[in-house]
Design a protein that fits this description.
5-stranded parallel β-sheet, 18 strands, 38% helix, alpha/beta, 5-stranded antiparallel β-sheet, single chain, 10 helices
């Protein structure tokens, strides 16, 4: 059964805490429409739109970001899953593996949050069990990904349970079954409070709230902290777009900023200033819409509980 994006958005709206005010406004709108009170109706219409915009902003900024990989040898299944996951903008695909060996290498390299896998892989007519990758990964990594199995039958469900698989989804993938698995996974995740930066010789943990902005420097990234410290990571800025929570946004090819620390946006000069630093941060003309979203976010009071005043120039 095909479900339109409009219906999905409506179902999401009515499942949110904002639903009460939205429903009340909507029924008032219908009541006054019946009696032809157009002026009141126009006011209510605007209020309803404001509630919808407020909801959409909450959706944009409330979700954590997650990396996933797909382990499957069936191209159609891979494409179908990718299409389904396009509905979740906070999920980023960081690779596809078509064999167990390739999957282990990819998991070690990318350290994803979720691994979607088919228990049986077939390459050049030879079948292999992808369950074999799970114990090996558990021996090699400290932070373990969540494994979600996908197959056209329940034949491997018992083995999946014994292997510590987080969820089992039948193919062809049902939109709502996939959504249930994703919601269960997200509900199990603790709030992100720190990030681990890797260099050639060490790992360093930095508290998320201490990061003011990031700057790209060729293939490395400099982290500028509240106390003035600069920490360099030997990873690209693009890597941290999926690693950091949504309070960080990329506003320039060389910069990501902590939205909570923006104190002034100068739209005519394409610049912004931040707390804890005197450095003026540029933003790209092509990414001006992101700054507008940030301005609207604070204007609508969606600020994660922190008082904030942004000066607009």
């Amino acid at each position: 059964m095909k479900v339109s994006k409009g219906k999905l958005i409506c179902s999401e709206i009515f499942s949110q805490p904002l639903a009460g005010s939205f429903i009340a406004l909507y029924f008032l709108y219908l009541y006054f429409s019946k009696y032809g009170l157009t002026v009141i109706n126009q006011i209510l219409g605007r209020l309803i739109l404001n509630e919808i915009n407020r909801f959409l902003l909450l959706v944009i900024y409330s979700a954590k970001k997650y990396k996933y990989i797909i382990v499957d040898s069936d191209e159609e299944s891979i494409k179908q899953l990718q299409r389904q996951l396009e509905n979740y903008s906070h999920y980023t695909c960081c690779g596809i593996a078509r064999s167990t060996e390739e999957a282990i290498y990819l998991i070690m390299d990318q350290i994803p949050h979720v691994v979607f896998f088919d228990p049986v892989l077939e390459l050049n007519g030879i079948k292999e069990s992808s369950f074999n990758m799970i114990p090996e990964v558990y021996q090699l990594l400290k932070r373990l990904p969540h494994f979600i199995a996908m197959n056209s039958s329940n034949e491997f469900a018992y083995k999946a349970i014994n292997s510590g698989v987080y969820a089992y989804v039948l193919k062809p993938i049902n939109l709502y079954e996939l959504k249930k698995a994703i919601i269960r996974f997200e509900n199990s995740q603790p709030p992100q409070s720190s990030i681990c930066l890797k260099s050639f010789t060490e790992f360093r943990f930095i508290m998320i709230e201490d990061i003011v902005y990031l700057k790209a420097d060729n293939n490395t990234t400099d982290f500028f902290l509240k106390d003035g410290t600069i920490v360099t990571s030997y990873q690209t800025l693009k890597t941290f777009e999926s690693e950091l929570p949504p309070i960080f946004t990329r506003i320039h090819k060389s910069y990501m900023v902590n939205v909570n620390y923006i104190k002034k946006i100068h739209f005519s000069k394409f610049q912004c200033s931040l707390k804890y630093t005197n450095t003026i941060i540029p933003f790209s003309k092509s990414l001006k819409f992101k700054m507008s979203e940030i301005k609207n976010r604070w204007s609508n009071g969606i600020n994660n509980g922190f008082p904030q005043q942004i000066n607009i120039a």
